[in-house]
Every structure is written in structure tokens, then in C-alpha cells.
């Protein structure tokens, strides 16, 4: 529970050089290039402006702190000693390349994109800002937006399904609460392990959503398996005896399935990509937490404490035991 209420997982994206669990030759080469050339020269920010706004847009871009230079794309190749080719104009528009002072795939570079857009939109609202860094920034923004939308929607749909299946609002709410608590506790442990054990720089912005989808899908399966049996036994034995009988019958199967599934996802940890290693650890730990602690101890204990009222508003709450 403490892990669930204290997680501060840093999931604001990873630079390409931080996407591997070990340093590769390509990462080393990129670092060497950054030592001798401007960091952002290999992947500049691309700005599409009207021909008449080139001068003003360039001046606005140069006021941004992390931009070192701005050059228009020319109609030809620049050759030392020869006149510079004219600026390339397509349908009255010009492409400007803005070189960043920082690595173009870094979090700092991505955070510069909204500053750049604000600067050029002061010149013309129709100016477009693109390039690899802008794509990464927009992807992160979309991922955070998806987290705020998809997670609540999924929980509502699952709550409705559980309520209809168990014919109980209280039971559905309780199971949803345990699923959310298990998910938050997993993120809390991930933060501690990723930062202090594996020394990862952070996590991809989509990591929480992928972890949520896997853990909720698997956790709800175990919930349904356990609670449908508990409900059947409660009709014959009463809620408190029924939960003990249901746990006895299904506990071994749920735990065994969880261990097998956790071992399967743990295999992702041997891959050299940080995202897959993180996802493998999170799902493996979350499944074990769900099967061994939440589904085997926490849920049965809460149902036992609440008693027959767990089945409200169905008639089973009155426990007319046969």
C-alpha cells in the first residue's frame, strides 16, 4: 500500500542513446559526434514558413535559448568557394532548419519544441514545426493524453462488466479498487528498482499505459475466476464460509497461472531494449503481486470482513442459506 501511494515514476520519455540496457557501438559513435559537432546538427528542427516571413521567423527562432543556428534549405548543394545557391521556395513557402544546442532526442530538446512553436506562432499562426524532435514531443504528449483518457474508460467498462457478472456494485467497486492499488504499487516498486537497481534514466511515456493494460487484463481474469466461485459457494454456505471455500478451490490454480505468466514476461528482461526490459519486469512483478498478495490474501480478507453486504444490492446480501 505504501508503494501504491508514493510512486513517482519518471515516464517522460527516453533519449535514443538511453534506450538500450547497455552501451552499443551506435550510441558510442553518436556521443563522439556530439563531442566535435553541434549536438542537434544531425536532426534539426524543421520549420515551414511563408517566404515573406523568413526573416521574422528566423529572428524569432534565434531568441530561443537552445537554438544555435537557423538556415533555410537551398535549391542545390553548398560548395565552398562557389556562390551559395538560392533559397528553395515551394508554393510560396520555405523550409528552415534550426540546429539545437542539445541532443535532438533528449528530454531537454523535446521540451524546447513548445517554446519554438510559441516563438514562431507569434509571427504567423500557420507556421509548422516538425522534424524528429517534434515528432517525439508530440508522441509523448499523445501518450500522456491517452493515459488520462484510456485508463478511466477501461476501469468504467470493467466495473460495469463486474457489476453485471457478480450482480453487486460493492463487489465490483472493491475489485476495481484492488486492481488500481496493485497497479499503483507496481509503478512504485518500478520507480525504486529502475532508478536505484538498474540505473535507468527514466521510462517511455507509454510505459504506464502498457503496464496498466497488461496488469488490469490479467488481474480482472483472476478476479472473475475467484469471485464467481466465491459467489457460488456463498449461496450454499454463506459469504464468510463461501470465500474460504472459494479461495481453497481456486487459490492453487490462480497462483500457478500467475507464476507461469510472470516467468514468461520476465524473459523480456534479457532483451537489450530498456522499454521491453522495464515492461517485462513490471508485468512479472505486478502479476506475482496480484496473484500471491492481492488475489490470495487482500481480496478474500476484505470480503470476509465486509460479509454479506459485499453482494449489495442483490438478494444474496441477506444470506438466505439453504
UniProtKB/TrEMBL annotation:
<feature type="transmembrane region" description="Helical">
    <location>
        <begin position="281"/>
        <end position="306"/>
    </location>
</feature>
<protein>
    <submittedName>
        <fullName>Unannotated protein</fullName>
    </submittedName>
</protein>
<dbReference type="InterPro" id="IPR050545">
    <property type="entry name" value="Mycobact_MmpL"/>
</dbReference>
<feature type="domain" description="SSD">
    <location>
        <begin position="176"/>
        <end position="304"/>
    </location>
</feature>
<dbReference type="Pfam" id="PF03176">
    <property type="entry name" value="MMPL"/>
</dbReference>
<keyword id="KW-1133">Transmembrane helix</keyword>
<keyword id="KW-0472">Membrane</keyword>
<keyword id="KW-1003">Cell membrane</keyword>
<feature type="transmembrane region" description="Helical">
    <location>
        <begin position="173"/>
        <end position="194"/>
    </location>
</feature>
<feature type="transmembrane region" description="Helical">
    <location>
        <begin position="247"/>
        <end position="275"/>
    </location>
</feature>
<dbReference type="GO" id="GO:0005886">
    <property type="term" value="C:plasma membrane"/>
</dbReference>
<feature type="transmembrane region" description="Helical">
    <location>
        <begin position="206"/>
        <end position="226"/>
    </location>
</feature>
<keyword id="KW-0812">Transmembrane</keyword>
<comment type="similarity">
    <text>Belongs to the resistance-nodulation-cell division (RND) (TC 2.A.6) family. MmpL subfamily.</text>
</comment>
<dbReference type="InterPro" id="IPR000731">
    <property type="entry name" value="SSD"/>
</dbReference>
<feature type="transmembrane region" description="Helical">
    <location>
        <begin position="149"/>
        <end position="166"/>
    </location>
</feature>
<dbReference type="InterPro" id="IPR004869">
    <property type="entry name" value="MMPL_dom"/>
</dbReference>
Amino acid at each position: 500500500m505504501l508503494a501504491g501511494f508514493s510512486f513517482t515514476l519518471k515516464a517522460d520519455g527516453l533519449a535514443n542513446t538511453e534506450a538500450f540496457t547497455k552501451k552499443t557501438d551506435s550510441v558510442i559513435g553518436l556521443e563522439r559526434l556530439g563531442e566535435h559537432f553541434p549536438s542537434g546538427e544531425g536532426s534539426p528542427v524543421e520549420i515551414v514558413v511563408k517566404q515573406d516571413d523568413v526573416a521574422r521567423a528566423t529572428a524569432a527562432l534565434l531568441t530561443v535559448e537552445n537554438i544555435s543556428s537557423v538556415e533555410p534549405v537551398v535549391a542545390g548543394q553548398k560548395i565552398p568557394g562557389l556562390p551559395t545557391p538560392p533559397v528553395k521556395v515551394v508554393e510560396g513557402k520555405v523550409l528552415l532548419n534550426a540546429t539545437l544546442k542539445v541532443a535532438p532526442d533528449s528530454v531537454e530538446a523535446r521540451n524546447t519544441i513548445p517554446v519554438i512553436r510559441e516563438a514562431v506562432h507569434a509571427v504567423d499562426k500557420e507556421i509548422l514545426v516538425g522534424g524528429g524532435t517534434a515528432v517525439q514531443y508530440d508522441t509523448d504528449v499523445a501518450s500522456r493524453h491517452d493515459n488520462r483518457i484510456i485508463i478511466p474508460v477501461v476501469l468504467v467498462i470493467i466495473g460495469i462488466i463486474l457489476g453485471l457478472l457478480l450482480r453487486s456494485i460493492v463487489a465490483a467497486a472493491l475489485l476495481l479498487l484492488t486492481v488500481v492499488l496493485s497497479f499503483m504499487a507496481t509503478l512504485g516498486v518500478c520507480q525504486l528498482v529502475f532508478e536505484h537497481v538498474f540505473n535507468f534514466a527514466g521510462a517511455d511515456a507509454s510505459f504506464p499505459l502498457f503496464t496498466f493494460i497488461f496488469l488490469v487484463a490479467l488481474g480482472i481474469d483472476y478476479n472473475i475466476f475467484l469471485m464467481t466461485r466465491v459467489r457460488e459457494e456463498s449461496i450454499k454456505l454463506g459469504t464468510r464460509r463461501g470465500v474460504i471455500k472459494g479461495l481453497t478451490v481456486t487459490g492453487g490454480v490462480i497462483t500457478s497461472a500467475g507464476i507461469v505468466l510472470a516467468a514468461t514476461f520476465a524473459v523480456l528482461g534479457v532483451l537489450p531494449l530498456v522499454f521491453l526490459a522495464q515492461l517485462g519486469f513490471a508485468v512479472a512483478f505486478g502479476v506475482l503481486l496480484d496473484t500471491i498478495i492481492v488475489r490470495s490474501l487482500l481480496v478474500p480478507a476484505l470480503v470476509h470482513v465486509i460479509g454479506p453486504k459485499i453482494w449489495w444490492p442483490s438478494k444474496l446480501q441477506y444470506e438466505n442459506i439453504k
